[in-house]
Amino acid sequence: MTDTQGSTERTGSADNGSAPSRRSLIGWGGAGLALGAAAAGGAVAMTRTGNDVDPAGSDTGGAVPFHGAHQAGIATAVQDRLHFAAFDVKTDDRAAFVQLLKDWTQAAARMTAGHTVGDGAYGGLPEAPPDDTGEALGLSPSRLTLTIGFGPSLFEKFGLADRRPDALVDLPQFPGDNLDKTRSNGDLCVQACADDPQVAVHAIRNLVRIGFGTVAIRWSQLGFGKTSSTTPSAQTPRNLMGFKDGTRNIAGTETDRLKKFVWVGEGDGGDWMTGGSYLVARRIRMDIESWDRTSLQEQEDVFGRDKGEGAPVGKAKEHDKPFLKAMKPDAHVRLAHPDANHGATILRRGYSFTDGTDGLGRLEAGLFFLAYQRDVRKGFIPVQRALSRADALNEYIQHVSSAVFAVPPGVRDKDDWWGRTLFSKEA
Question: Which among 30, 177, 201, 230 has the fewest CB atoms less than 10 Å away?
């Protein structure tokens, strides 16, 4: 099946145009888990064109609009699966890198709409590699979003030093950090979120293929089981410690809070970033074997909430306003709360992960923490300073990788491209 541009639809049968197939389970290689294929409404693939989208990006398995003032994948309703990749730039040719950004933008727009890349996975010249790798044929868009960010090291290339925003600071070394340099930082990143893990992996795989010779993967992370939500009407998700996470997270519908705490505004510095945001990514290893042998009372004291309802100490309901002084001085909620950090507020989009074992008979598991904010200096850094000094949770966790990125504004239309405001002289 082809669309009006003559390119193969990703959805629908790859063989004879019959009804799309169903997928029940997909294995996550290193995770050793079998995860459900698609969320509600996404198990049966749907044929749709680029204009046939679900504008709310709700859990329908449909398409999230790619174009807009802000990049999708930030305030968008959080999907169930993640494939995050950080890249190193392997060329000093500015024109080649800009062309890659344009090619990536075109591919991202097609994949998020449920189309194949270019002319598709089959039907082209037998002597040439296909334009699309093909593993997402027959699958719905699954609310795929692709979000790009630029790391501090990118601004050391291509004569961009004077365009690095003041807010894009190198993160300090926090007490307790045990960072793996090979799994930290990066010249740029792409965050792929979807309700089907194969759709997310397909997206990153195809961007890697397109970028061969210009960029290379530095490190990547698979995630499952979202640990925060931007839809407050939905049930608050739980982390691998069994506690509800992100109760006070900014909702995608809270335009005032998004403007105040997430989106870069005019006059913030670095005009090319207006409408963008700043992303902090941290891989947080959990010592879940020790945690699982800890008493319920101590677990609840550590967080400052009860494990069942998620209510703060002394309260009955999860969303009741917490009385911080009723919690222990080192309780996680007490130290992380905006009232304890001069109002510092971030938007979280974290995911759980399991990556086999650590070689000592323990699960390699934890939280892949993703936080968006208007200014890292007023968001993540003050909160993490407070937590790293005194949080009782530190006995059970360790930050093992870290990165920060400037996330530019959205792609406005079909003639726009990722990073245009940074790289175009007229921008």
Answer: 30
Is residue 10 domain-resident? no
For 404-422, the pLDDT digits (tens) are 999 999 999 999 999 999 9
Query: Residue 399: phi, psi to the nearest 5?
Result: -80, 120
What CA–CA distance (Å, rounded) separates 17 from 106? 25
Task: Name the one residue in this structure whose structure tokens are 């891989």.
Answer: 283
* Whether the Cβ atoms of residue 312 and residue 333 lie closer than 8 Å to each other: yes
Q: How many helices (H) and strands (E) does the chain have?
A: 8, 11
Measured distance CA(277)–CA(213) in Å, rounded: 28
Q: What pTM does this model have?
A: 0.87
Domain presence at residue 19: no
Residue-level length of the chain: 427
Q: How many domains does the chain have?
A: 1
| 234 DSSP assignment | S
Confirm if 402 and 386 have CB atoms less than 8 A apart: no
Domain membership of residue 2 (yes or no) is no
Q: Per the structure block, which two tokens stand in for 189? A: 């990143």
The upper half-sphere exposure of residue 349, i.e. CA atoms within 13 Å in the direction of its Cβ, equals 31
* Residue 17 in domain: no
